[in-house]
Design goal:
This protein has about 230 residues and is mostly helical. It contains five helices and five strands. The radius of gyration is 42 Å and the shape is elongated.
């Protein structure tokens, strides 16, 4: 039991040092940076922007197409009693291979077509208006999420500060009581005070030590809740 209390006290001390090194704004900034909700809203804005660009590309920008072809029918010409490979025949009369009618002489043919959407202004305007509404709605949700996040982090930060101050107060009381007990022992031995007075101080010291342990646990809970708020809201 005593070992667990020592571990609890050390952990509480470590968290106190870590907490004291950073300001409220630091924790708020971390919470906003790591918030899945804010990251989702940011991704939604990107999606809205990409959808609008895609819509404009379809209904506003011209669509250019290029079609081309070249047909080869190689043959082995036997004209002049020789066997010669011809990729494009110049009109052989005696040959092996494809029919000469299957080729266009190896000529490269290409055609460019341009399709320009017309009378799409009303569709583009409607889509842009819809995108602006979605963006505004998304920004409003983002601002609301940030405000709620600041409120939650601030509340949890205040709880940590309160726990820290309570710990410091109880530690000061324990220190004062410990000094009084040492002084009281001398006075009891001298017969100035009774033993019961010393025992009462020792009981009060023990009660405050128990309260310190409770406050250590409370502080750890509050600090852990603050960390959870920074990473999971």
């Amino acid at each position: 039991m005593k070992k667990n209390l020592i571990i609890l006290a050390v952990a509480s001390c470590f968290c106190t040092v870590a907490f004291s090194q950073n300001s409220l704004q630091h924790y708020i900034s971390l919470a906003k940076q790591n918030s899945p909700l804010l990251q989702k809203q940011e991704n939604n804005l990107k999606i809205i922007d990409l959808n609008l660009k895609q819509f404009n590309a379809i209904y506003k920008a011209p669509n250019i197409n290029l079609n081309s072809n070249a047909i080869f029918s190689p043959i082995i010409s036997k004209d002049g009693n020789t066997n010669k490979l011809e990729w494009v025949s110049s009109g052989s009369s005696d040959y092996w291979g494809y029919d000469l009618g299957a080729t266009n002489g190896g000529q490269f043919q290409a055609m460019i077509s341009v399709n320009q959407p017309l009378f799409t202004h009303k569709y583009i305007a409607a889509q842009q208006n819809n995108a602006e509404i979605l963006q505004e709605r998304n920004l409003n949700i983002t601002q609301l999420t940030k405000a709620e996040l600041e409120q939650i982090v601030t509340h949890q930060y205040i709880l940590c500060v309160q726990s820290q101050k309570q710990k410091e107060n109880i530690q000061n009381i324990i220190q004062v009581l410990a000094e009084q007990i040492q002084q009281m022992k001398v006075l009891v031995n001298a017969g100035i005070y009774k033993l019961i007075d010393l025992k009462l101080l020792e009981i009060e010291l023990e009660n405050n030590q128990i309260e310190e342990e409770r406050l250590n646990g409370s502080y750890l809970d509050n600090f852990n809740s603050l960390k959870i708020t920074m990473w999971h809201q």
